[in-house]
Amino acid sequence: MTRKKRRLMVLLLAGLGLGTATALTLTAFQDNLVFFLSPSDAMANRPPADRAFRLGGLVESGSIERTTGSDGRPSATFRVTDGPTSISVTYSGVLPDLFREGQGVVTLGRLLPDGSFRATEVLARHDETYMPPEVADALRRAGHWNPAQGAAPPAETWNTAPRQREGRSGG
Amino acid sequence: MIPELGHFALALACVLALAQAVLPIVGAARRDPRWMGTAAPLAFGQLIAVGVAFGALLWAFAVNDTTVSNVVANSHSAKPLIYKFSGSWGNHEGSMVLWVLILSLCGAAVAAFGRDLPTALKARVIGVLGWVALGFLGFVIFTSNPFDRVWPPPADGRGLNPVLQDPGLAMHPPMLYLGYVGYAVTFAFAVAALLEGRVDAAWGRWVRPWALAAWCFLTLGIALGSWWAYYELGWGGYWFWDPVENSSLLPWLAGTALLHSAIVVEKRDALKIWTVLLALLAFTLSLLGTFLVRSGVLNSVHAFANDPTRGTVILVLLMVYVAGSFALFAWRAPKLAPTGIFAPISREGALVLNNLLLCSIAAVVLAGTLWPMFADILTGAKISVGPPFFNTATAPLAIPLVVAMPIGAMLPWKRGDVWAALQRLWWAAAAALVVGFLFLAALGYPVWPALGMAMAAWLIVGAAADIVDRIALFRRPAQAWQRARGLPRAAWGAALAHAGLGVTIAGIAGMGVATDTLVALKAGESTRLAGYEWRMEGLSDVTGPNFTARRATVTVLQDGQVVTVLTPERRTFQVDRQTTTEAAIHTNAMRDLYAVLGEERDGAGVLRLHHNPLAPWIWFGAVIMALGGGLSLSDRRMRVAAPAPKAATVPA
C-alpha cells in the first residue's frame, strides 16, 4: 500500500469516526436535553408528558404533605413556587437531608396532564444556604427577589409579596 | 511561624520553577552542557521547596492552627487526625499545593531516573515541567494562598464538609492528581520532542512508562471517586455523568488512547505525530478537568470552590498552555515524518481503530459536558445533559471498541488476518454467545444487561485466549510453563487489563438489573426485595466522635436465616450544621445489599433498599486494570536502563 493511499485511508477513517461521533451527539441531544423551567415557564409552555424537564423554585411554606402512594410507597407532595405560579410536585423516594420549606429545590420529572408534576429526582445540596443558580435566576425573572440584596425572603411571603423593581444585578 | 515558612517555601519554589523553565531550555537550544546541567538540581530543589510548603500545611492542620484561614475554613479540633490531614488537600488551596507537589515529584523522578535520556531531551522535558510548575505555583501564590492568616483567630475551625470525611475520599484526590500530573510529564515529553523536531522509538520507550503509570493512578482515582459516590452519597448509583466525573473520565479516555499509540511509536516507529498530539490532548483535558472542578462554571453535585476569578486564572493558564503547545505542534509536527508502514488490518491498524473510537467517545463526552455552558452563554437557556444522553451517545462507540479489543490483541504487527485471529478466538466468541443467551433466556435479563454480560465474557475469555495462544498451551503443553515464564510481563499486563475491563463491564451489566424499593417500616415490620426479607428492628440514637446520628437496625433474612444486620444512619454534624446519609452495605462479592435511611414519620423509618447484583465488580475490575498496568510497568523492557534480557532463560 502506498503512502498516499494509506494517508487517504487514515483520513477517511478519522472522518468516519468524527462523523459518527457528531451524528451520535446530535441525535442524542435531540432526545435527551433536559431543560430547566420555573413554574411560570412550565405553565406557559406546558411540555408534553413524555418530555422530562427540571422544575425549580422554592418549596412553598406549609405545602409539604407526606402521603402513601397507590403502590404503598411512602411519598411526599409539595408545591414548588417562583412567586406568581406554583406547581404541585409528587415525589416517591427519600427526600434529601436538607429538604425543607422555603428552600431552593430542583426536581427532575414530567408534567402530568392535570398540571401536576411527578418527580423522579429531587436535588438539594448538602448545604443549608445553597441556592441553585437556576432557581435564583427563575426567582429574579419572576421579579420577586434581587439576589444582590441578600438572601431570599421567606417562602410563605412569596405569593403575597409585592414585586420588587427589577434591580440591576451586581451593584 | 511555620505557615510563613511554608509560604516562603512556595515563593522559593516559584523562583526555582522560573529558573527551571528558562535555563535548561535555553541551554538545550545553545547546546551548552553547563546550562543543561542545571535541570536536575533545579528539579530536586523544587521538590524540596514544595515538599517543605506541603509539610508546613500538614503541620498547620495537624495542630489545628486557627490563625490560618484555610484551617479555619476546613478543619476542626474535634476531627479525627486522618481527616485533619486529608482536610489539608480536601479544599481548593491545599489540593493545588498537592498538585504542585506531585508535579515536582514527577520532575525530580525524571531527573533521577532519566540518566540514560539524551541530555538535551532531558533538559527540555524538565524545562517544560518547569513552565507548568511556574504557572500553577503563581496561581497558588497569587489567587489561593493556603497560608493566609486571620486575626483575631477564631476559637475553632468550621470543620470539613462531612461527606468528605471518609477514607475513600481521603485517597481520591492524591490518586487522581498522580494521574493528571503524570500526563504533565508525557506533555513535557511531547513538547520537548516538538522543540527537538525528533520522535523516535527511544522517545516512545520513555513516554510509555509515564503514560502507563499516569493511567494506572487515574484508573484507581476514578474508581475510588465512583466507589465513594456509591457508598457515601447514598443514591445507590455509581456513576452520574456529572461534569466533575466526566472531567476525570476525559483525560482517562485520551490517556488510554495515548498508552496504546505509544506502543506503535515504540515498536513500529509509526503514528508519531498522532501520539504527540494525544499527549498534548491528555494534558489539556487534565487541565480542563481542573478548570471545570474549580471554576464553578458548570453546575455539579460536588463542585469545589465557586470562585470566578480563580476560574478565570486557570482558564488563562489553560489557554496559554494549550495555545502554546498546539501552535508549536502546528509549526513543528511536519518534521516528524513517519517511517513505519503497515496494512490497515494489522496490530497497528487495530490500535488506530482503538484510538479513533476512544477519541470519538471523548469528543462525545466533552460535547455533552460543555454544551450546557455554551447553551447558557449563547442562548441563555438553562439546559442540563443527563445520563440518557451519555448512555445513548457513547454506547454505539463503546460496543465496537469492546468487540475489537481481543481481536486487535491477536493481530500480528504490520499485516494481519482478521479471519485467522477470529479462529483463535472462537471459544471466546462461543463463551460470549452462551453467556449472553444464558442471561437473556435463563435468568431473564433485559437485552442491554445480557449484552453487557456477553461482552464481559468476550473480553475475559478473549484475554485468556490471547495468553493461551501465546504460550501454546494446547499445541505444545509440555513447554507451556516455560513459555509462560518467558512471556514478557507487558503481555500479561495487557491481558490482565483487558480482562479487568471485562470485569468492570460485568459489574455495570449487573447494576442494570438492580432492584430497589421504598418502604416505611415500624419496628418489627418487614418487607421483601430480591428474595430477601428485610426486617426493621428499630430506630435508635447513636453518638460518633463529631456527630450524632439516628440509626435504623435492619435484619436481612433469606429462607429464615439471618444474612446480615444493616445499620443505615442519618448523621448530624453539629460543627458543620449538616446532615448526611450513611448507607449500610453488605457485600458478598456477587451482590450488594444496600440500605438508606430517610425521614421518619409516625414512628416508622422510611427506608430505601437496593439489591445490586455484581456491584463490587465495577471497582474490582478497575483494580485489576490498574494491576495489569502495574505489571506491564514492571516489564524489564520498560526500564530503559536495564540490560537486554538474555536470549534464553536458564533452564532449571
Automatic annotation (TrEMBL), chain A:
The family this protein is said to belong to: Belongs to the CcmE/CycJ family.
GO biological process: cytochrome complex assembly; protein-heme linkage
Gene name as annotated: ccmE
Topology of the protein relative to the lipid bilayer: Single-pass type II membrane protein
This protein's name: Cytochrome c-type biogenesis protein CcmE
Alphabetical list of NCBIfam families matching this protein: PRK13254.1-1, PRK13254.1-3, PRK13254.1-5
Region described as Disordered: spans on this chain: 145-171
Claim: Signal is one of the keywords in the record: yes
TrEMBL record, chain B:
UniProt GO molecular function: heme binding; heme transmembrane transporter activity; lyase activity
Membrane topology recorded in Swiss-Prot or TrEMBL: Multi-pass membrane protein
Residue span, Cytochrome c-type biogenesis protein CcmF C-terminal domain: 315-636
All copies of domain Cytochrome c assembly protein, residue ranges: 89-295
Protein name: Heme lyase CcmF/NrfE family subunit
Alphabetical list of InterPro entries matching this protein: CcmF_C (IPR032523), Cyt_c_assembly (IPR002541), Cyt_c_biogenesis (IPR003567), Cyt_c_biogenesis_CcmF (IPR003568)
GO terms (BP aspect): cytochrome complex assembly
Record key words, sorted: Cell inner membrane, Cell membrane, Cytochrome c-type biogenesis, Lyase, Membrane, Transmembrane, Transmembrane helix
Key word Cell inner membrane present: yes
General function of this protein: Required for the biogenesis of c-type cytochromes. Possible subunit of a heme lyase.
Localization per record: Cell inner membrane
Taxonomic lineage: Bacteria, Pseudomonadati, Pseudomonadota, Alphaproteobacteria, Acetobacterales
GO annotations of cellular component type: plasma membrane
Main location: membrane
TM ranges: 6-27, 39-62, 96-113, 125-144, 175-195, 207-229, 249-266, 273-293, 313-331, 352-374, 394-413, 425-445, 451-469, 490-514, 614-633
UniProt family annotation: Belongs to the CcmF/CycK/Ccl1/NrfE/CcsA family.
Organism (species): Neoroseomonas soli
